[in-house]
Amino acid sequence: MKQHIIRPRAFRASNRDGYLVDLIRPEAKDVFRDNLPTSLTDHLDDLEGAAIFGLSWLVNSPRCEAVAIDDRGNPVRMVVVDPRVFALHKAWLSSREDREPLKAKRDLEQAKFAAAIAVQYLRLPFASKDLEALPGSLRKLAPELSRTIEEVSEHSTKPNW
Fold it and tell me: Angle, to 10 degrees, between the axis of helix 83-95 and the axis of helix 101-116?
């Protein structure tokens, strides 16, 4: 899949089918002393990561490891953000007043499905010491997400026609 950078030093690239990928990075605590690298390489036309508030919660969250199978049948080790933290972060994003309504709706749906995957398939409860280091603004969203898990499960097992 060859990528096309929309413009030099942008944070977004697309492939020939129009699939978009954004390069993001945590926002520094002190934006005036932000000396974190913004791009992956020194190439002048490389992508440059957009600083996102709250992303440090994901970067510093517990990790989950799994082995997936690629399209050729080979095992691929995956190290990802704990899906509970991803769900809480997406729920938090969806509740922000400055979030675009279309993005907020998408964020909430992603939060619900990630929560359902975490609890029902991976058996990772939201009431866990693993999540105690998260800010209260994220943890307080767990009860509402937990209530939506059954709703998501019913939706995902019904035919979509």
Answer: 150
Residue 77 and residue 46 share a domain: no
pTM listed for this prediction: 0.75
* Coil, helix or strand at residue 33: helix
Please state, in angstroms and rounded to a whole number, the distance separating the CA atoms of residues 107 and 92: 9
d(CA 50, CA 113): 26
Q: Quick one: CA torsion of 6, 11, 16, 18, rounded to 10 degrees?
A: -100
How many residues are there in the chain? 161
Same domain, 86 and 12: no
Q: Per-residue pLDDT tens, the chain, 161 aa: give them.
A: 555 555 556 788 888 888 888 888 888 777 677 776 677 677 777 788 888 888 888 888 888 898 999 999 999 999 999 999 999 999 999 999 999 999 999 999 999 999 999 998 889 999 999 898 898 988 999 998 888 887 776 666 555 54
State the residue range of the domain holding 157.
54-161
Dmax over CA atoms of the chain, in Å, equals: 53
Q: Which two tokens stand for residue 8?
A: 């030099």
